[in-house]
Specification:
Strand order of the largest sheet: 1-9-8-5-4-2-3
Bound molecules: pyridoxal-5'-phosphate
Number of strands: 14
Low-confidence stretches: none
Order of helices and strands: HHEHEHEHEHEEEEEHHHHEEEHEHEH
Shape: globular
Radius of gyration: 21 Å
Oligomer: single chain
Distance between the termini: 23 Å
Structural class: alpha/beta
Largest sheet: 7 strands, mixed
Mean pLDDT: 97
Length: about 375
């Protein structure tokens, strides 16, 4: 069958604020590299929104994670607990520090690690936990912080998918020693490529600032007391970010609206046990990064078939969930993590982005519902 052109992409950035104006301003000012007024403005805006001190803007979420790990002290000989069900940047960043990722399973309902699954993954060399608030639902920070405290582990939050989500009324990003955000094109807000690191300890934060810029001492030309990186965010990217941050409430609300509508539309499918939907947990305010459904019957081929037909028949682009990290060649391990494996085999991500109208959500829901019934029944 001939493919429709994509009518609904899985994700797209929404750049309808002052992004264009700010980028032009940056271009005309000549400040196009990793220095310039928009970088500091963007850092200040994000920090204020999250109610955190001193965000450090960098060129990607992966760079933000790497610096956050270094701020926590991760290094050779250390094991760091990370989810098996996550984006590959998590273990990659651990490896960039010379440390080793050890994989924890996730709760099949919340998709997040829990204190129990982390505990199962701990080794004698585990020094810290990289907690990912997956798909925008905050993990149970209370029990995980208690575990970390009792075991003498540091806690790092990967908030790449959770900008604006809150736990007990506090936005995520300030619950551990450090945190990292991503502003890739499909995240809640975007700078094209970009990220931001937050560090609690002021001295470690200063170090991270130097590491971003080749370890350069800002007070003295060509004096590099640390071996750093070029992880600077460009003024052009930050200009986009400033435009996005002016509309952050809109972006967060849009994702709530879309998620609520999908969940309402899928209530019957979920009630019949065919699929499970993203859950709501009291005390945790999610920001739906991407909306996903999980098939609860049938083998892993069912999700692929539904995804193929969604694109061919309806022009709906979807994505599979993550292949668990322990099934990738460079992290291959002969372990069985049923939560991560179930999600990886049965999850389907649906189009989720600011500006996706109610009519579109209804149309996508209807198409997905008929495909799920067709393939599963
Ligand atoms: C997107 C993402 C990252 C990495 O961000 P980049 O900006 O693409 O480098 C890290 N962790 C998680 C969980 C992500 O979703």
């Amino acid at each position: 069958m001939k493919s429709n052109p994509i009518r609904y992409p899985a994700s797209r950035p929404h750049l309808a604020g002052r992004e264009r104006e700010y980028v032009l301003e940056a271009l005309e000012s000549g400040w196009i590299s990793g220095a310039g007024p928009f970088v500091e403005r963007f850092e200040a805006h994000v920090s204020r929104f999250l109610d955190l001190e001193g965000g450090v803007a960098v060129c990607s979420g992966t760079a933000a994670l790497h610096l956050a790990l270094l701020a926590c002290g991760a290094g050779p000989g250390d094991d760091v607990a990370t989810p098996a069900f996550t984006f590959v940047a998590c273990p990659n960043a651990v490896r960039m520090c010379g440390a080793r990722p050890v994989f924890a399973d996730c709760c099949p309902l919340t998709w997040n690690m829990t204190a129990a699954t982390i505990e199962q993954a701990l080794t004698p060399r585990t020094r810290g936990v990289m907690l990912v608030h997956l798909f925008g639902l905050p993990a149970d920070v209370t029990e995980i912080r208690e575990l970390c405290t009792s075991r003498g582990l540091w806690l790092l939050e990967d908030c790449a998918q959770a900008m604006g989500a809150a736990f007990d009324g506090r936005r995520v990003g300030g619950f551990g020693a450090a945190s990292a955000f991503s502003f890739y094109g499909n995240k809640v807000i975007s700078t094209g490529e970009g990220g931001m690191t937050f560090v609690q300890d002021p001295e470690a934060r200063r170090r991270v600032r130097l590491l971003r810029n080749q370890g350069l001492d800002p007070q003295r030309h060509h004096w590099h007391p640390l071996a750093g990186f070029n992880y600077r965010m460009t003024n052009l990217s930050a200009a986009v970010g400033c435009g996005q941050m002016e509309q952050i409430a809109f972006h967060v609300d849009e994702r709530h609206r879309i998620a609520r509508r999908y969940s309402r539309n899928f209530a019957e499918l979920a009630g019949s046990g065919r699929v499970s939907l993203p859950v709501e947990v009291p005390g945790r305010e999610r920001v739906t990064w991407l909306y996903g459904i999980v098939l609860e019957r049938g083998g892993s081929a069912a999700a692929d078939l539904i995804r193929t037909r969604a694109l061919e028949r309806y022009g709906i682009q979807t994505r599979p969930f993550y292949i668990p990290m322990h099934r990738l060649p460079m992290y291959a391990e002969d372990i069985h993590l049923p939560g991560a494996e179930h999600l990886g085999d049965h999850g389907i991500v649906l189009p989720t982005y600011s500006g996706l109208g109610d009519g579109a959500v209804d149309e996508i829901s209807g198409a997905m519902e008929s495909l799920v019934r067709e393939v599963m029944d």
